[in-house]
Amino acid sequence: MSTELLAPLDLAFWHLESDAHPMHLGALAVFDPSPDLGGEQILDLLADRAADIPRLRMRVRDVWLPVGGAAWVTHKEFDVRRHVRHVRLGAGNFAGRAVDLAGELMERPLRRGRPPWEMYVLTGAPEEPFAVLVKLHHALADGMRAVAIGAGILDQMADSRAGGSRRHRPVASKSWLPGPGQVADLAKGRVEELGRALGIGASVMRASRLELGASSALAASSSGTRRLATAVLDLEDVQRVRRASGGTANDVLLALTAGALRRWMLERGDRLPGADPRALVPVSRRRPGSPPGSGNKLSAYLLGLPVSEDDPEARLQAVRTAMDRNKSAGPARGAGAVAVLADQLPSLAHRFGAPLAGNAARMLFDILVTSVPLPRSALSFGGRPLREIYPMAPLARGQSLAVALSTYGGRVHVGLVADGRAVPDADRLADCMGEELHDLLKVIGP
């Protein structure tokens, strides 16, 4: 039976979870209608392809060594039908019903003791689109690895496997004991890692806030409910702003998020916070071609979202300046690199310290804003082209909103995951994203 120790960051995500704060990622993928392909046929195809992904056959099991650790093991009683389901939504307003149901399904923690993932086929009338909702535990995958796993169910990857151009390799066993020739290198590496961890830890302490100044709209005790709201932006409009102002498309999207939050807060009658809310902006440390079993590879930047600034162009400039400063320092330094710090902690620290760390998240940041890269090529399932795909991120304790963005097919798809009780008007915030882009386009002119 294949085994592989959970990396420290994976173990942290595993133990951070509670019933009110499930730690899974998600995506709602919407495909063109399939009048000649019924919902049960779509489900069968999804089950076959998911069963062919070795990573999805593994569950988490505690181990004796290292103390407090856990390992991925192949589930002997794996049954893909426990993980895939078909939900019929009925006819009419498929998009709205699918988004509402996706929010409800994201509330439910994944069942432990089994491989931590689920997929749902959502269907309406034959002439309407259909959707696939994917839920993957964060311990199983970061954003880029989630994309790689999700791609395994699509026609392009399945055709590649069938053609023999790609063969699955079994997940290799990973011993916690170094070989004799590795001891010196390991010791040197640990000293370097310790120095880096101390530097990050000091930055985290300096950046932590005892008095929380963010708007109450972004902070709430968890109700355990989830709501999904979505928006679609034209990528060419985003690029027009980027070409006129400089920086990156991601800078523009972060500025749009800041402007949308400002507009939304003012409409709700909220007072703008005395200090700009902090966004945690994840950064992948994964190298191209890294093996599937390499675990989460994440760091992050901290960014003050300039909601107090009333000029859209000035907001964009403020974001550009802050992100340039973050990139100059690098993703493995500073308070935002708390995930790098987690990678240096022993297993017992994660097992017993995860609840404390989760409760402390609000002292460091107020909202998660993440961009999930997708393949540029056209994608399909069962011969039906992918029309839209909305990424979803987990909520940290004490926070009521997370923003995820993905670019596909010339459009930017925005997924807002909100606490359903704290942010019942998440749809309005989604609308504000498009309105902010319109305002920026007016500022830069034709």
From TrEMBL:
Superkingdom: Bacteria
Record-annotated O-acyltransferase WSD1 C-terminal domain positions: 295-440
Catalytic activity: an acyl-CoA + a 1,2-diacyl-sn-glycerol = a triacyl-sn-glycerol + CoA
InterPro entries in alphabetical order: Acyl_transf_WS/DGAT, O-acyltransferase_WSD1-like, O-acyltransferase_WSD1_C, O-acyltransferase_WSD1_N
Enzyme class: transferase
Pathway: Lipid metabolism; Glycerolipid metabolism; triacylglycerol biosynthesis
NCBIfam families: acyl_WS_DGAT (TIGR02946)
Similarity field: Belongs to the long-chain O-acyltransferase family.
PANTHER family the UniProt entry points to: O-ACYLTRANSFERASE (WSD1-LIKE) FAMILY PROTEIN, WAX ESTER SYNTHASE_DIACYLGLYCEROL ACYLTRANSFERASE 4-RELATED
Name used for this protein in its record: Diacylglycerol O-acyltransferase
Organism listed in the record: Streptomyces sannanensis
Lineage start: Bacteria, Bacillati, Actinomycetota, Actinomycetes, Kitasatosporales
